[in-house]
Structure prediction request, 371 residues.
Amino acid sequence: MRWFGRKAASDAPGRPFLLGAAWGAGGELWPRSYEAQVREAYLGNAVAQRCVRLVSEAVGSVVVDAAQEPPPPPSAVPLPSKGWGGLVAPSLLETATTHLLLHGNAFLHVGLDARGEPGRLFALRPERVKVVADGGGWPSGYRYRAGAAERVYAADAVVHVRSPHPLDDHYGLGCLGAAAAAVAVHNAAARWNKALLDNAARPSGALVYDPGDGSVLAPAQYERLKAEMAAEFAGSGNAGRPMLLEGGLKWQALSLSPADMDFVEIKAAAAREIALAFGVPPMLVGLPGDNAYANYREAVRSLWRLTVLPMAGKILDAVGERLGVRLAVDVDQVSALHADRAELWRQVSAADFLSVAEKREMLGFSREAQV
Prediction:
């Protein structure tokens, strides 16, 4: 009896990631491939790139605490936390966070030392990794392909960190799909503004020939007029140059002005949606007029509480489960949260109904002071 339905067979081809689609500039559909989306959103959009870097660099800056699971007996030599902190290097955390935000999956290969113990973690590019499922549909390994080279890792040789995907059993869901429409609008508005600068920094229009007798321009006159327009009035270097019309010609504007299209507000709204998709307060990416937070300090605290710490905890929990170590962020070392820590100390110190031992335990210290 199958309680939860049938899973994919082990020899099934790698399924495409369910990334969202949106309409981009020129009417084309938002690219479906991961590499094309990364080029459009991360490499070609300043807001999305800044959001990803804010989160990934913050996660990479955390101080990692480690403790053995289960705790060793008193006679055993304690595990040095600095050794595990070196295993989970800041660059590794930053790379894994970038992969999680963009792709929804982070694959960390566990490299073994000469004694067969975990010696180092290597981040694998997620679009090159496919989950190898057994006959029951459960992951049994990971196939990594780089060009013509291909290698299959055992399931315990790779730490797979994923963001929840409600429609996929094996792969996570990144933020690119949710931000696709906003990135397409933001990039299209930027291209439109660039086109305005390239075309005399003004909306396009038409030269109307109206001599009054119904005649039309001769072919030679028409070609000469086109050449003069391209040479004398097109391009940002000719912006504002006065136009001298003769022979019944008059200028008639056809396009909407930038004020009518309101590109500033369109780009700002799209930028807010991009920041929302990546979990970054809009104030931190330089968007003016956003009053969702009282001040910049509150926005930074919100970024750490709602995005950075959960992301770091997800990665450290997955790595710690594989290595048999409890890894956690040392929140006391996060400068953005010092105000929260000071408030906790004030509240605990003012609690007269608690003993000194209970207060020390609430603040993360041992119940008895070490001499």
The chain is about 40% helix and 15% strand. The chain has three domains: 25-182+266-333, 205-254, 336-371.
